Amino acid sequence: MTVSSCSRLEALLASFPGGRAFLSPILATALASTVYAAPNPGQAMHDPDHALVFQVGDLKVTIGDHYAHGGSDRPSYTGIHHLSHRLRESNVFCPLYAGMIGIRKECTIRPVGKNGAVLTVGTGKSEVSETYTVKAPHYVDHAARFTAGRTTGSWNSTSYMNGPADPAIYIIQTNGEWARHYSETHGDRASIAPKGMDPLPKGNVVENAKYAHGTNGFWDGFSDLRFDPDFPLFYGRFDDMVLIFMVERKWGSDLIPYMSPSGGGYSKEWERTNPAWDYRYRLRNLTPGAEVVIRSRVCYKRFVSDEDILAEYEAWQKQLETGSR
């Protein structure tokens, strides 16, 4: 019996003299456990063919496949459909789209482990998968896996945010100072390179390009800012909360964060534009035929300090080094 059907039965019972006493003790007990029992961590709360919901620690997380959701008729927004915290119930990602979007095409979804889901497309050497694992108190770990076809490659992760008051992202520079990165208009110096990335990647320059940097890719333009490749992370703020995107240190020299001030449209909930907080990798020195594993972590918690953000990153790197994932 579903929660909604049980609730209707509860209302019906209340209309009878004696209410619950109208039922036998056995049926009344069964009804109580169905209506009021909290969902188990990892229990699918929506269509289990297309989305899995997890409540772990402080977080509520929905992982979904390519099917349209949230009232949208637009498919292919795979990844984290919902991320909220017990201290802030609003979804940090635009409900019509998603966060940590990688595959972005028709795929399968299945549960993995106690509190995780894996999205998969292709088979054999062409298989690409993304595993999302929710961990207490406030983490979502992510691993992308694919087979290298040549010595170079790429990976991209897109996140459409839900109306933050401050739409910018923050990176740490090699001098230890934090810098705010905000692209004033879509396609204006969207990307930030790591210190030492030289030359910068160039897009396909075309006539009558959409953007001033000469290409039709809004991400091809670069800010003058450079981040420290030993700290491949960035964060954004949601009031007194912070959302941190972290990637494994070994990929720091290949990482390129980028943003759009309006890539996610408009938030009706907050009456503000939805920025896109994205990142991509320019992968080099791959071994053809070998598996590539790119690990990242999202941390969503109350903001403490910039020092606390670095401590979160170092603690995660230590876990990766010791194999305690």
How do you describe this structure in short?
This protein has helices at 3-14, 25-36, 306-322, and strands spanning 51-56, 59-64, 79-85, 108-112, 116-121, 128-135, 139-147, 153-157, 169-172, 178-181, 191-194, 222-227, 233-238, 241-247, 255-260, 266-267, 272-273, 276-283, 291-302.
How would you describe what is shown here?
This protein has helices spanning 3-14, 25-36, 306-322; strands at residues 51-56, 59-64, 79-85, 108-112, 116-121, 128-135, 139-147, 153-157, 169-172, 178-181, 191-194, 222-227, 233-238, 241-247, 255-260, 266-267, 272-273, 276-283, 291-302. The protein has two domains: 3-36, no CATH class; 51-322, Beta-galactosidase, Chain A, domain 5 (Distorted Sandwich), CATH 2.70.98. The protein has 325 residues and is mainly beta. Strand 4 and strand 5 form a beta hairpin. The protein is built from three helices and 19 strands.
Topology of helices and strands:
Blueprint: H1 3-14, H2 25-36, E1 51-56, E2 59-64, E3 79-85, E4 108-112, E5 116-121, E6 128-135, E7 139-147, E8 153-157, E9 169-172, E10 178-181, E11 191-194, E12 222-227, E13 233-238, E14 241-247, E15 255-260, E16 266-267, E17 272-273, E18 276-283, E19 291-302, H3 306-322
Parallel strand pairs: 11-12
Antiparallel strand pairs: 1-2, 2-3, 4-5, 5-6, 6-7, 7-19, 8-18, 9-10, 13-14, 14-19, 15-18, 16-17
